[in-house]
From TrEMBL:
Domain of life: Bacteria
Cellular component per GO, a single term: cytosol
Residue ranges of domain Class II aldolase/adducin N-terminal in the record: 9-187
Protein family membership: Belongs to the aldolase class II family. AraD/FucA subfamily.
Protein name: 3-oxo-tetronate 4-phosphate decarboxylase
Amino acid sequence: MSVEAKLREEICRIGASLYQRGYTVGSAGNISARLDDGWLITPTDACLGFLDPAAISKVDAGGNWVSGDKPSKTLVLHRAVYDNNPEMHAVVHTHSTHLVSLTINGVWKEEDVLPPITPYYVMKVGHIPLIKYARPGAPEVAEQVAKIATKVRGVLLERLGPVVWESSVSKAAFALEELEETAKLWHLAGARATGLEEPALQDLRDTFKARW
């Protein structure tokens, strides 16, 4: 099986997993993966739970639609990551409930939407800034992401949910899941939740090279 064929299968497998567990609903969300000659991205208005490998959109390095169904309207946002961070090979975006709710009820800080309340959040996710609301596919969102694509593993779009990038589709999904789970814990704990103190954070930096 070719690299492209394997990536198509991985996108479908991860999409179905996220959908089945409620990380996204209906036709919300999108997934992409880098290729040597461009990238793959889920089609516009496609349901992540019922993706067809053959229908996944392919675009060239310039972002031009090559084959498959029409690409997601967030194509420009995904391209902003790939063009500015060559180490990243996948982007996952969902409308996860607790993270969207966080943007409505109020994040911890605009530069850090959640406090470092668990070690795995610090290790696997790190700093996640809030991107103020703009319509889906708005070019100004991509412009903001382009400036920070090497500094963070993802962003939280106000009223639209998380966008996470990593070295593979699976790793991006895992980081997104950790982010959503931390938002759920934050909701459950409320004002009583406190972040790890600096000595604990430094230990995670020294031991696991955590980016916090």
